[in-house]
Design goal:
Elements (H helix, E strand, L loop, with lengths): L7 H17 L6 H18 L11 H26 L6 H12 L4 H28 L4 H14 L7 H21 L2 H18 L4
Helix pairs in contact: 1-2, 2-5, 3-8, 5-6, 5-7, 5-8, 6-7, 7-8
InterPro entries: Rce1/LyrA-like_dom
Organism: Heyndrickxia coagulans DSM 1 = ATCC 7050
GO molecular function, one term: endopeptidase activity
Length: about 200
């Protein structure tokens, strides 16, 4: 019976995420300030709601290998996907360039916020909170799909379809990883590896 009841905490968190990201994308000139603040609020919101989920403790070496390898694998998938975009109609390959121009970190504090707030915050909120609550009510495959749709939906406000697609693809990948390992440190390391490759070391544009 309880599984059929509306999860008001989850619903409230999604509404708040949409409101915060709508505000965040209104003015790109202050994007990094607003997005950092939004993620800090969402992290605080999940902590305020109660005890956190128990996560698996992977051996240190396994954690490093799993996190780094999965992040590198997702980067390869995105790189291949970017090549495919060049052969598709709709100008999505041009949107990749616009996304880089609008949202790439430029200053030291941008990189600091990316590593210390945005990457951990996205995994804490979308996987450890949203996906976990969904997984308590349905099969993991449906929870992964729905949480990916919810995650991607907040990027509609940025005005770039490629950001929505990228968020959905990344959420599916990390959702599968989380459902398999239930290790938040592995999630964060995977996300960190991917973002550093995509934005810093080997940008695809």
């Amino acid at each position: 019976m309880a599984k059929n009841m509306v999860d008001t905490k989850l619903l409230g968190s999604i509404l708040i995420a949409h409101l915060l990201l709508y505000i965040t994308f209104r003015d790109i000139s202050v994007f990094w300030y607003l997005y950092s603040g939004a993620m800090l609020f969402l992290i605080s919101y999940t902590v305020f709601l109660g005890k956190s989920e128990k996560h698996e403790k992977l051996p240190y070496l396994q954690l490093l290998l799993y996190g780094i390898f999965s992040g590198f694998l997702l980067y390869i998938i995105f790189r291949i996907g970017n090549t495919v975009l060049g052969f598709l109609p709709g100008g999505l390959d041009n949107e990749v360039a616009r996304a880089y121009r609008r949202f790439s970190p430029e200053t030291f504090w941008h990189y600091l916020a990316l590593v210390l707030i945005l990457i951990p915050g996205e995994e804490i909120f979308w996987r450890s909170f949203v996906q976990t609550r969904l997984m308590k009510r349905m099969e993991a495959k449906y929870a992964i799909l729905i949480s990916a749709v919810l995650n991607a939906s907040v990027y509609f406000y940025c005005g770039l379809k490629i950001m929505v697609i990228a968020a959905f693809a990344g959420s599916i990948f990390w959702g599968l990883l989380y459902a398999k390992k239930r290790s938040l440190p592995a999630q964060i390391l995977s996300h960190l590896t991917f973002d550093l490759l995509l934005v810093v070391f080997l940008p695809i544009f």
